[in-house]
Design brief:
Helix content: 10-25%
Order of helices and strands: EHHEEHE
Distance between the termini: 71 Å
Shape: elongated
Largest sheet: 4 strands, parallel
Strand order of the largest sheet: 1-2-3-4
Strand content: 15-25%
Number of strands: 4
Low-confidence stretches: none
């Protein structure tokens, strides 16, 4: 299931699909329009789901919580294979230890004679 023009496909996938396709065994979700809403926990289950692939490509909200996708794992007790791929061209990485520029510089060990 792919969605090119709608955002929040994963939220829809976990809250609606278990009721529509409850016996699905293989599910591939591909979102290219961005995810703005974290994936909620739900009581619905994919009881027969063996294979799940989630692919995100596009503009994700900076506050999107990737760990909220654990709701799919919780809703899939028979899951054997889980593939998660993210393609984001302009991802910014923040250092958890502050500026690391000084770590790349060699200390000045030369002495003037």
């Amino acid at each position: 299931m792919g969605c090119a023009n709608e955002s929040n496909l994963l939220c829809y996938g976990i809250t609606r699909l278990p009721y529509v396709v409850s016996t699905v065994e293989d599910l591939k979700l591909s979102s290219t329009s961005g995810e703005r809403v974290n994936t909620p926990m739900t009581a619905a289950k994919f009881l027969h789901l063996n294979f799940l692939e989630i692919y995100l490509d596009g503009d994700l909200s900076p506050g999107y919580d990737y760990l909220s996708l654990v709701s799919f794992l919780n809703a899939s007790p028979a899951l054997e294979t889980f593939i998660f791929r993210v393609d984001q061209d302009e991802m910014l990485f923040d250092s958890i230890i502050g500026g690391a520029l000084h770590m790349r510089q060699m200390p000045n060990t030369s002495t003037i004679a």
